[in-house]
Design a protein that fits this description.
It is a single chain. The protein is α+β, with helices and mostly antiparallel strands. It has two domains: about 350 residues, Up-down Bundle (Amino acid/polyamine transporter I), CATH 1.20.1740.10; about 50 residues, no CATH class. The protein is about 65% helix and about 5% strand. A four-stranded antiparallel β-sheet has the order 1-6-5-4, with no helix packed on it. A hairpin with a 2-residue loop joins strand 5 and strand 6. Helix 3 crosses helix 8 and helix 9 packs across helix 11. The longest helix has about 35 residues. The protein is globular.
Length: about 400
């Protein structure tokens, strides 16, 4: 008796989905922070904008390469499969495990904690950031259990909301009146060598901000006509991101000025505050929460397909290659991604937690019986002595302990 064929992926994603997946895997919360990092290293307004334009051009070249590879070899696994075929399976094996325990899961956990830190002030919800981030990741994990179409639709809605928020930031910045600090001139570089060195250092956060466009190649097995759809979707997605990034930085330089932009800790919030007042900062907080949610949704959709391909090649646990016969998604791969993301949220929560207040707790003084058999409190005797952990008052048996503990 012949065995029944194993369930495979369903091709449900089109060019629109691939383009939004490409955009969603690139644009997270970095664009709302990176302009100030770049401006702090490249002081001149022209150098700041040029860095983002050059980074966009290099990212476009990378997308062209990925588009050519997907058009010639639309193999399940995407970039992982290309590493496996071009070099050696051990290279692809290392790449996949790094994705699982650091590259991708760490980014998702950090985005989850960022979402929680912005969501709590907006709603007043008193929940630890790690728990809120883990719950959010679990929600998107469950959504992707129901099928690639459900996960893709959720990702598309958040990507459109993210794009609308960035467009609002750019539009508000264009019509905002520049601050007084915007008229200050920047400090010129002493030599051409120092300017070139500063420009090179400024390119590091730019490259980090453009990273992620290869994630769309992991859903080759669920894309309609991948030889045509994926290359066009990749190019459409990066062509949305590049003007978006350049426009955001032009607006930041226009409103805040290069010197003030380099000193700003939240440039997007500062721009919206200048344009719309206090409500602007609240609006940009909502945009950041939507952006981080979209990034988590995108990663939860595409990355488990990488682990599925590894398991199918015998480089991962065999059960991870199982595809649900009804929903046609790699359920175990999605679950592994979600569980590790949730565990790393605890680590990210410790790294990004706010400093806690410290208070002094006084323990009751010890007591002893007197000659009549009654209890009496031992009084303090002598000045306090600090031994590194507790305050000791008194001598011998007459001691009162005062400990410093965290609230």
């Amino acid at each position: 008796m012949s065995e029944s064929p194993r369930p495979t992926f369903l091709r449900r994603l089109n060019m629109f989905d691939v383009s939004l997946i490409t955009m969603g895997s690139i644009v997270g919360s970095v664009i709302f922070r990176s302009p100030s990092v770049v401006a702090a290293r490249a002081h001149a307004p022209g150098m700041i904008v040029a860095a983002w334009m050059l980074g966009g051009f290099i990212a476009l070249c990378g997308v062209w390469i990925a588009a050519e590879l997907t058009a010639r070899r639309p193999t399940e696994g995407g970039f992982y499969a290309y590493l496996r075929d071009a070099f050696h399976p051990i290279v692809a094996f290392i790449f996949g495990w790094l994705y699982l325990f650091g590259i991708d899961t760490g980014a998702v956990a950090a985005s989850g904690v960022t979402f929680a830190n912005y969501f709590q002030p907006l709603t007043g919800l008193q929940v630890p950031p790690a728990i809120l981030a883990g719950t959010t990741i679990a929600f998107f994990m469950v959504v992707n259990f129901f099928g690639v179409r459900q996960g893709g639709t959720t990702q598309n809605m958040l990507a459109v909301a993210k794009l609308s928020g960035v467009a609002l930031l750019v539009g508000a910045g264009v019509f905002a009146h520049p601050t007084a600090a915007a008229d200050r001139s920047f400090v010129p570089f002493g030599t051409a060598t120092s300017a070139l060195a500063a420009f090179g250092v400024a390119m590091i956060p730019v490259f980090f901000a453009y990273n992620g466009f290869l994630s769309a190649t992991y859903v080759i097995g669920e894309t309609k006509d991948p030889r045509r759809t994926l290359p066009r979707g990749l190019l459409a997605g990066i062509c949305i991101v590049i003007p978006m990034y350049v426009a955001v930085n032009i607006v930041c330089v226009h409103v805040l000025g290069a010197p003030a932009l380099g000193l700003s800790k939240a440039p997007a919030s500062d721009v919206m505050s200048v344009a719309l007042g206090p409500i602007g900062a609240r609006i940009i907080a909502i945009v950041v929460t939507l952006s981080t949610l979209g990034f988590i949704s995108t990663k939860m959709l595409v990355t488990p397909r990488l682990y599925h391909r590894m398991a199918a090649d015998g480089l991962f646990f065999k059960a991870v290659a199982w595809v649900h016969p009804k929903t046609r998604v790699p359920v175990f791969a999605i679950a592994i991604q979600g569980v590790i993301d949730r565990q790393l949220c605890g680590v990210a929560g410790l790294c990004f937690r706010r400093p806690r207040r410290r208070r002094t707790r006084h323990f009751p003084a010890p007591r002893c019986r007197n000659a009549a058999g009654r209890w009496r409190i031992l009084h303090d005797a002598g000045p306090p002595v600090y031994d590194g952990r507790i305050f000791l008052r008194g001598h011998g048996r007459r001691r009162r302990y005062v400990r410093v503990v965290s609230s």
